[in-house]
Amino acid sequence: MEEGRGPQPNLISLNNTDLYLEEPWQDLRRLDVYDLDDDQIGSVEDVYVDWEQRLARLLDVSTEDVLGIGKKHFLVPVQEVRREVDEERLTVQHPKEKVMESPEFDPDAGPKLDLQRAVYAYYGHSFPA
Fold first, then answer.
1. Which domains are present in the chain?
2. What values do phi and psi take at 31, rounded to 5?
């Protein structure tokens, strides 16, 4: 596999592991995602976790396409969202358009390194070491 083309070896899908979180409120899957203007973007389908450091890194946010026919997926770094513990939703610290214009993600292919780098750069972050 070419460098930068495969998934990051230590980044795993929370949906595809028996890894559990100590506190149920830490699980962000199935939460609705809103932007700063309180417009709904979509919902969290999955959380990609750094296996070695046991840290959530990227959220797979899905949204219905304009016609409501299919879903589009986008990766959002966890540092771009906030959650009030007493709320069952997340807020992305950007307008909806910013998320919708980010690199599209294919969950069947997984978060390949080149896409991860592009996502972190798009949101103005360095790629985590």
1. 11-122 (3.90.50.10)
2. -80, 145
Q: Which residue has the higher pLDDT, 121 or 54?
A: 121
Model confidence band, residue 9 (pLDDT cutoffs 50, 70, 90): low
Q: What is the pTM of this model?
A: 0.86
Q: What is the pLDDT of residues 48-68, one digit of tens each?
A: 988 877 788 999 999 986 666
In Å, the largest CA–CA distance within the chain is 44
Quick check: helix, strand or coil at residue 117? helix
- HEC string of 14-42? HHHCCCCCCCHHHCCCCCEEECCCCCEEE
CA–CA gap between residue 80 and residue 90 (Å, rounded): 10
Distance CA 21, CA 8 (A): 21
- The H helix count followed by the E strand count for the chain is 2, 7
Closest C-alpha to 81, from 11, 129, 33, 115: 33
